[in-house]
Design a protein that fits this description.
Blueprint (H helix, E strand, L loop, with lengths): L27 H14 L2 H11 L5 E3 L10 H13 L3 E6 L2 E6 L3 H10 L5
Antiparallel strand pairs: 1-3, 2-3
Helix pairs in contact: 2-3
């Protein structure tokens, strides 16, 4: 007998972090949050880890599958923690492994922040 059960799929509350930079000046709070996200991504190892999670099949990656970025496992865990603290990743422990996924609004919100409408 299987212990597996199907859980309902919930639609995430997708709220971008900020309006496009071309729409209006960011508030102090919006600038703080956005700076923390970009600061977390400014490290090459973190950027590689974020990319590995974002591009993983099914939208999530086990830490065991993304740790080959040229640093030790404790350093990988440190960088994943920083990405999570910046609001870029969410995690879920399953047995002995931790699975990471990009927060639903992150990619769309960051893309919207940087692109906005074109000005001539």
């Amino acid at each position: 007998m299987s212990n597996t059960r199907t859980l309902p799929v919930l639609e995430p509350d997708v709220v971008p972090c900020c309006p496009p930079l071309t729409e209006r000046t960011l508030t102090a709070a919006e600038a703080e949050r956005t700076a923390a996200m970009f600061k977390a991504l400014s490290d090459p190892v973190r950027l590689r880890l974020f990319s590995a999670v974002a591009s993983a099949p099914g939208g999530e990656a086990c830490v065991c599958d993304i740790s080959d970025v040229g640093v030790s496992q404790p350093t990988v865990s440190h960088h994943l923690k920083k990405l999570k603290e910046a609001g870029l990743l969410a995690s879920e422990r399953r047995g002995t492994w931790v699975y990471y996924r990009v927060e639903p609004s992150v990619l769309a919100g960051m893309g919207r922040l940087l692109t906005g409408p074109a000005r001539v």
